[in-house]
Amino acid sequence: xxxxxxxxETESPGAAIRDMVxxxxxxxxxxxxxxxxxxxxxxxxxLDLAARLGAHVEAVALAVDPxxxxxxxxxxxxxxxxxxxxxxxDAAKAATTRFGDAATARGVASEARVAEILMGGAPxxxxxxxxxxxxxxxxxxxxxxxxxxRETMIESALFEGGAPVLLVPYVDKGPLALERVTIAWxxxxxxxxxxxxxxxxxxxxxxxxxxxxxxxxxxPGEPGADIATWLSRHGLDVVVETMEAPEISVADAxxxxxxxxxxxxxxxxxxxxxxxxxxxxxxxxxxxxASMTIPVLMAH
Length: 300
What we know:
Elements: H1 7-11, E1 19-23, H2 33-36, H3 41-53, E2 56-64, H4 78-106, E3 110-117, H5 124-130, E4 135-139, H6 150-161, E5 165-168, E6 180-184, H7 189-202, E7 207-213, H8 225-232, E8 238-243, H9 250-260, E9 265-269, E10 272-275, E11 278-281, H10 283-291, E12 296-299
Parallel strand pairs: 1-2, 1-4, 2-3, 4-5, 6-7, 6-9, 7-8, 9-12
Antiparallel strand pairs: 5-12, 10-11
Helix pairs in contact: 3-4, 5-6, 9-10
């Protein structure tokens, strides 16, 4: 479904999505027709979304130095390391070229760059870009073709970046549809930030549901009345649904609900705990990242 601009976007430019950062896929990727040829699902979705919203896109391709496993006793020859490094840089450059060509074909304003990460170092340059943008788009890691540091990049963008993160499943679903959107609501800070970030998407959705699971469904007062009232003042019609604490994980319950209701986008808070610079994702967040089948908008 095409996303149409609304008068509310014109009246509230601060809420509009004008700038995006997307992490490019550098490995084997899904081919999506002439305009998205050679792009993975996340870059292709970001490009399509930018074309419809008139947004600028900064595309980043990682070139990660080879990381030698700890069990390897003998050091790798320097020429082997240099060859692997050169291959990583070449793959990243090829990804930026593919994206730039596709962006030009769609008439999307963009820039693309290679970010080299040395020996598993911190992705500081990428995180800095995530702090001065409206939306970060990252693809779920493909277990058949895992990319170096993909989970680290997702965690860093979510917990250090500041901008909301749109996570895209590695199974290609095509352009982002917004006919049905579900908000996972527990009344907490992370969930509230996610809903604030989702307002530009919610304004274009046909059907919006607020799902409260377990303890969230037994909050004082009418469950979900607070968020439903708030969103109604934005001119949004919301249906509140409650679910008893499931026997399965919260992540599986959310994804089962999304499948049963043919949900196009899930909005939820990203939960985790910081240990120095090592992030430990909360159970629901990690479960969604591992098993997601639809795009998920997260904020922390």
